Write the structure tokens for this entry.
Amino acid sequence: MINLGQILLSIPLAISAIQFFSGAFSWGFSQQRLTKWLFASLTVCFAFLTYKYVVSDFSYLNVFENSHTMKPLIYKITGVWGNHEGSMLLFIFILSLYSFLFCIFSKSKNKDNILFFQGFASFLLLAYIYFASSPFEVNSYYKEGVDIQGLGLNPLLQDIGLAIHPPLLYLGYAGFSLCFSYALVALKDNIDPQIFANEIRNYSLFSWSFLAFGIALGSWWAYRELGWGGFWFWDPVENSSLVPWLLASALIHSSIYTRKFGGYALLTVFLSLATFIFALTGFFLVRSGILSSVHSFASDPNRGLFMLAIVFILSAYSMYLFGRNLFSYHKESNYHYTILSRQVHIGINVVIFLALTITILLGLFYPIILEVFNIRSISIGEPYFEKVFLPLSILLAVVAVFTPFIKWHKNKLSKIVRALPSLVSSIVIAFVIQHYFSNIGNFALISLICGLWLFISMLELYVLRIFDDRGKITRGLNVLFLSHGGFGLLIVFITLLVTQQSKVESIISKNNAYESDAAKIELLNSEISKRDNFLYQSAKFKLELEGGQVLELNPENRVYFPDVKKTYEVDIKSDHFADYYMVMGKSEMNEEGDYEFPVRFYIKPFIMYMWLAMFMIGLGGLIALIPKRK
Amino acid sequence: MKKLIQILPLIILVVAVALLVIKITSDSKGGKGVNYFESRALGKQIPVLKLPTSVDAENGIYKDGYSLVNVFASWCTSCMYEHPLFAELSGLENLKLVGINWRDKRADSAAWLKKHGNPYDVIAYDELGKYGISLGIRGVPETFLVDPEGIVIDHVRGNIDEGFINKVKDIVK
């Protein structure tokens, strides 16, 4: 059989190869034209794979293993990226989309050189996809005319959260390739740091925002779909997505100074390189089987080595160029800073972001290092991250409070003191909160104060500007309010959530209700039936809570066809205060012939405001892209 | 000194990557790879089989030479992948192929074997799954190689492959 998919895939591989060799050995092909062709051919590949999923063509192994004719159309399409091979194709497709848009819209003088490095990265990734992880492998169990069914997409992935989580995440990861390529060009051709920082501004902000949305959405999916009641697990994959995001956060801050005066040039270049390299390292870590996680769905040591080789080639070249220019890449500027200046302020901020990054990298790599030297095997989890990561984040919030009060020049202590009234009000509010809610210890109190301080100071600034006749609400103010204020709120709501959440675990049947001071839970009815592509048992519970509130929750357990995979569907009801979250385990029949349901019920206060705060942070990055009003 | 600092980033990178390469290759060679598991059946007597079987086996199943015990089910899609490989072993004189049909209906398994071929000398029907549990399986398929004394000498969790087939041929010969 002619494998049409693999033939189609060889076209972008060839184009990106030409793009690389042409640039490296001056063959004289137009980088811009090749970029457009690369995008066009990858679009064809991606559309072809999607089409094969829609029509359920099981002669392709990838479709056979991840799809099924009974699946709803939306999950046939999202099944394309619900597996390793397809998601890699999506990634390279989005990367080429960025190259394409850059090629068309950028007015940069260095366009051709940047496209060369984009082509180089695409070439390496396409070689990996073509030779080691092709989504177009032929299904050897398929015979013409024989009726066979696909194995079906993992039911956990049949969820709207997963449908949009990878595309958003990849819009983030792949976008940093432009910063990466530009940084290589800047080092190679010694581009003026100010021009470099100016031109990567929009790409870094855009990608940073989408990475933030992608991470938040992944966390939301885990909360709704995995049924263990949490939103962040410090899982290696979650952590390795946080690394590029933290590096990018450092980047968008350090580049402010580089744009303005050309300072921190090396730092900005380094962060541009590191962000994309660690985005790829994330792929390597979770797809090679070197770390085990819920996402390691294609762990294969050979693929791991191939991915590692790609990361190594790109990062070795980056580190070579970086080392070569270590003493020469900078810009003389006439900016004289003092200890009390925005430059130092940004510097402190970047140092904290780097410390956060190193915290996570240590958590990821330290167990590996120990194992290589045969010392012992350990696993690093929540306690470590909470002890190190959270205090640093709170410190970050305190640093952020001063942003609007510290200027580049002529700072006076008296202006900086303006941040203090909001501190007083946040201390008062924090103590009031502590008075009304139980369980708020010292650490929680401090994080409440700091989070509130950041939010209230931004709010105060915003409100004062509204009532000031001469003042205008500028873009910068909007961004500060959303991203920094959002960060403050995030700390507040996570603190409240973690300290105020409560949990009930019990086994409930028709004649056996749960009753305590906090809640009364009784089973109303239950049924077993069939819907779409699964069987389900659902049960309806009536809850009476402490405050006299009554609600009904309806969790469900499903068995998906055709692979007898089970999922536990949580039921969540929300009001303005909390999420009421219920999940049940496998039911068993008792001696009286009634079903007994093991249930877990959580009250998750303020969790929707936490998602809102995450959204605000990312939105700030997008607002920063709106052209300034003249 | 200046030179040294300039190549420092590259050196750090090389060291880090070298560590990762060591980790990956040692994982896949030293038996601690993704498929590594500690078998509790290995080196022990295989549990006595007291199940209904497809052919009469009064003297017990694991007598007269080696047995290859394959736990399978008609609802198990992975079993479909490995199934054709057993055909290569079905003619061997000194080896008995034992299929443990795990948590399955007889009619379903009969239809399944009709469609995909039946390489087994004996099939035992473990409808409640208890025998599988006493073998220590975690899912299907799993495969055990049993020597003439009834000791488990090999245990594969998940699909078997060509390499395993050749290994069995060498041992049984």
